[in-house]
Task: inverse folding
């Protein structure tokens, strides 16, 4: 794998919109849910970008759109400057090598009928010429070694492994096609704490050695802070704040980011029993009928009339990073 | 500590499997006092959930209590009949679960399910039960309670469903509340709401509470005392401050270091090597020794007893003092 | 609770298979035995005891079971109205019945498998067309449709198979479509898509293996039901030509002699009932014992 040039954008999302059509009963359309309602985001070669949000905010749909499992309704997904939606099918399949996805549940994402060796070799059957057949066994051993598994694991089936080991297999399978970008969709959320740490370390090592970029999607702010260089916060289909890890975590400007950070439990919470935590009221509104203006205003303690009428754009406002709020906390 | 609500002595639970007995809980002892929140923390397979269910008289299928005694408010409940358990549950001891949707009956309205507690246990009339149900829903922070009474569970969000579960659990003023991963299925902001609610109710009613969790952050926020479980044993107990500031068991120490913190600056985490043991054939000596950086010959041979380190503070490690001081000097 | 399994969970070799067979309930052993006996009889019987539809033997007409024939042989199951040995007729009928049922299930099953896979995996308009055609056909009694087709096509074994296969494919297509839909959106299939796998590869390596166990169960049950359908057509004179033996036509012939020579209709009737019930038990057994791993 060639050493990537840092700072060169490899993935650009340009006003991406992805909708799901709802059906209610036979033939009747129940309207459209805009799960992703206009997201722009850049991932540069070799960096890790975190996409944080709660369930239903559309972060998983972003992942599925990038890897081509769902089609965007509008907007563009650019990989190394090429628009994925306009590529011919043949080129698109080649490009699939460059972007890989690691799922949340390693119990569901590996074909239970295939041995580890078969799982790792399958990508080479699909993309012929990637690895010559006589080097397959050797390459399987080296992949297993790279993700911390032993060579004799190759002949076992997924159900013979623990959750952490299965996630290692999934990572090895993703690496088999030598991707430039790996989308991790809650990839460590189902793992126990001690095993999660092993996988996070592994992901970091791989990035250092192979220069792969990550789009790391998670609800866990602590994990994102640990692994990411830059962070984007999503709420109800939109990015509300984006910036370097330090600027977002040290100076959260959007009220939602502030609330998320305050709500996230940490090891130090016992020190300060009556913490001045911001506890948001209510629940996330339905994406079927999002609020007018700012989507967060129904739960925001600072909301004013302007928030109802005008949707805030994601721009820098006396802050060192872009934020989509009319009244952001200054950095 | 004022009155002891729950006393567990040397509880052991085994599952019958085709490959022989699986020792899920291997001799667990602890107490919960009035107005006290104990967190039982551990990873999957540690036996924390089996312990909690056993306390409620809900011994899982194909499991049996091998030994031990459970006393609730001074009454030995180990050999209670189903009928006696039904009277105890709800009245003296209640439980909330990780997934409120599967714990609620989908075909009955929420109001009916709350009011049912009063009708069945208190023999109150329909009107009176409904009135009490509305009051309870308001207490647990369900807005517009009067109107939402007749909605079915699927009309509620995850957080609101968990509030309904809490209302049902607290309906009959139990003394002890067991919460099994109560916020694991919830979003961060909703989790904060529910943890705050539990704390408020627990303080107001001087409830004894047990929170089962895998999340050290949730435990830090919600509990007074903590018991860390590993491979069916409690390996360390103490107040949250004692345990979090100076862990006295290598496993606790490992867990703490495996959690990313703002201070780690993205440096590699100190993960615990290896995998939890196979409970069908636990290792000789200390169950943690194959993964333990402190392990020596003694650990491979002798299963450690609980070492008292202070009042209600103990560690099941041969080298507990060393672990504690090791943390202090930053060595380990 | 998840315990880590480190030993291989697969038990191979013939010994475990035998042990699993031995652990089956008695009715399973009876069913397997019956089906085996009938299959062997159908295969080898006509070679040992040949049946010739053109042959008649007036002195041996309507003899009861166990009677001695004019040529000295014993007719263990009696003779019919033209002096044919019922045993030979039943054995030859078994062969017809088995051939028609197996080929029908093979043809109908293949068509159903293909259309079910297409409908279940691709969905959309392909699913719409296939499912609606299937629904329309199911709204029509299947035997009536078979009678109509067999009547139009005329009596021959191939035509019987065509008529029956046309009535059966829907059942297979539905089973396969259901399994395909269940597995289509599983994460490990998504994972293959992300890898760039073609539709053909996903269908062959991911969808098909999950559809086979339920298809096998359905096929087993359908073998029995197809035997009944074949007998029904032959009973009505719309089945195989009269030069070939069939349980249905034998029963039809025996209808006129129910009072005097009951064995003509009763023997093939009993044979049909026995084999169909046995196959039904086998089908249930397959359903119950399908390895949970193979359902993934």
Result:
């Amino acid at each position: 794998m060639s050493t990537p040039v840092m700072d060169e954008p490899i993935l650009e999302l340009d006003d991406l919109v992805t909708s799901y059509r709802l059906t209610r009963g036979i033939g009747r359309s129940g309207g459209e849910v805009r799960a992703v309602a206009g997201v722009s985001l850049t991932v540069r070669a070799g960096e890790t970008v975190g996409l944080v949000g709660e369930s239903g905010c559309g972060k998983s749909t972003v992942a599925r759109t990038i890897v081509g499992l769902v089609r965007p309704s509008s907007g563009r997904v650019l990989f190394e400057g090429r628009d994925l939606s306009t590529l011919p099918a043949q080129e698109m399949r080649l490009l699939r090598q460059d972007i890989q996805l690691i799922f949340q549940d390693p119990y569901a994402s590996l074909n239970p009928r295939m041995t580890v060796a078969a799982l790792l070799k399958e990508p080479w059957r699909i993309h012929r010429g990637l690895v010559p057949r006589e080097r397959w066994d050797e390459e399987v051993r080296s992949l297993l070694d790279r993700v911390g598994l032993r060579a004799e694991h190759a002949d076992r089936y997924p159900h013979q492994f623990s959750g952490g080991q299965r996630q290692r297999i999934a990572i090895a399978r993703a690496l088999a096609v030598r991707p430039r970008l790996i989308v991790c969709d809650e990839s460590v959320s189902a793992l126990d704490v001690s095993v999660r740490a092993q996988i996070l370390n592994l992901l970091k090592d791989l990035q250092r050695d192979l220069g792969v970029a990550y789009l790391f999607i998670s609800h866990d702010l602590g994990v994102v802070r640990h692994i990411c260089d830059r962070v984007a916060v999503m709420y109800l289909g939109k990015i509300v704040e984006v910036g370097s890890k330090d600027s977002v975590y040290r100076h959260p400007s959007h009220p939602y980011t502030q609330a998320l950070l305050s709500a996230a439990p940490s090891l130090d919470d016992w020190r300060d029993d009556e913490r001045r935590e911001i506890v948001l009221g209510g629940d996330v509104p339905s994406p079927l009928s999002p609020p007018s203006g700012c989507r967060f205003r129904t739960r925001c303690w600072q909301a004013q009339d302007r928030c109802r009428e005008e949707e805030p754009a994601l721009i820098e406002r006396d802050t060192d990073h872009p934020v989509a709020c009319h009244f952001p906390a200054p950095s | 500590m004022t009155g002891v609500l729950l006393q567990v002595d040397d509880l052991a639970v085994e599952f019958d499997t085709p490959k022989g007995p699986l020792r899920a809980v291997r001799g667990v002892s602890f107490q919960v006092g009035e107005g006290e929140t104990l967190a039982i923390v551990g990873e999957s397979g540690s036996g924390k959930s089996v312990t909690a269910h056993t306390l409620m008289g809900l011994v899982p299928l194909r499991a049996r209590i091998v030994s031990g005694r459970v006393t609730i408010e001074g009454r030995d409940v180990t050999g209670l009949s189903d009928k006696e358990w039904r009277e105890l549950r709800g009245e003296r001891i209640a439980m909330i679960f990780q997934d409120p949707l599967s714990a609620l009956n989908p075909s009955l309205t929420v109001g009916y399910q709350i009011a049912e507690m009063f009708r069945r246990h208190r023999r109150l009339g329909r009107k009176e039960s409904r009135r009490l149900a509305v009051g309870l829903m308001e207490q647990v922070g369900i807005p517009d309670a009067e109107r939402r009474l007749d909605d079915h569970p699927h009309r509620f969000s995850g957080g609101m469903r968990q509030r309904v579960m809490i209302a049902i659990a607290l309906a009959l003023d139990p003394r002890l509340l067991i919460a099994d991963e109560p916020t694991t299925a919830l979003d961060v902001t909703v989790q904060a709401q529910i943890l705050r609610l539990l704390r408020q109710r627990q303080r107001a009613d001087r409830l004894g509470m047990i929170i089962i969790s895998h999340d050290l952050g949730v435990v830090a926020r919600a509990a007074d005392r903590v018991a860390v479980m590993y491979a069916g044993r409690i390996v360390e107990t103490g107040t949250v401050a004692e345990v979090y500031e100076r862990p006295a068991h290598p496993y606790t120490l490992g867990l703490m270091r495996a959690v990313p913190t703002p201070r780690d600056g993205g440096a590699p985490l100190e993960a615990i090597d290896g995998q939890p043991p196979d409970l069908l054939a636990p290792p000789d000596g200390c169950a943690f020794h194959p993964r333990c950086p402190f392990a020596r010959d003694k650990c491979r041979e002798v299963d450690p007893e609980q070492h008292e380190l202070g009042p209600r503070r103990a560690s099941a490690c041969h080298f507990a003092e060393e672990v504690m001081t090791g943390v202090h000097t930053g060595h380990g | 609770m998840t315990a880590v399994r480190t030993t291989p969970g697969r038990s191979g070799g013939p010994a475990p298979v035998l042990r699993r067979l031995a652990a089956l309930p008695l009715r399973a052993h009876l069913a397997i035995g019956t089906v085996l006996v009938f299959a062997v009889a159908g295969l080898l019987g006509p070679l040992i005891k040949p049946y010739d539809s053109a042959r008649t033997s007036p002195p041996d007409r309507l003899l009861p079971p166990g009677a001695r024939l004019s040529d000295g042989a014993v007719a263990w199951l009696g003779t019919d109205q033209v002096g044919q040995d019922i045993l030979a007729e039943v054995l030859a009928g078994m062969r017809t019945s088995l051939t028609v049922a197996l080929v029908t299930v093979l043809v109908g099953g293949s068509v159903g498998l293909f259309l079910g896979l297409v409908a279940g995996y691709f969905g959309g308009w392909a699913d719409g067309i296939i499912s609606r055609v299937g629904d329309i056909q199911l709204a029509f009694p299947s035997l009536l449709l078979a009678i109509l087709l067999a009547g139009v096509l005329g009596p021959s074994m191939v035509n019987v198979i065509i008529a029956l296969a046309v009535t059966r494919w829907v059942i297979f297509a539905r089973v396969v479509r259901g399994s395909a839909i269940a597995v289509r959106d599983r994460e490990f299939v998504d994972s293959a898509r992300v890898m760039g796998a073609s539709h053909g590869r996903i269908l062959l390596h991911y969808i098909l293996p999950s559809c086979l166990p339920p298809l096998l169960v359905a096929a087993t049950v359908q073998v029995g039901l197809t035997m009944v359908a074949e007998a029904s057509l032959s009973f009505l004179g719309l089945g195989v030509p009269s030069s070939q033996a069939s349980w249905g036509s034998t029963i039809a012939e025996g209808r006129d002699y129910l009072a005097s020579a009951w064995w003509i209709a009763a023997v093939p009737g009993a044979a049909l009932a026995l084999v169909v019930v046995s196959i039904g038990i086998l089908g249930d057994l397959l359903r119950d014992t399908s390895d949970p791993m193979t359902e993934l």
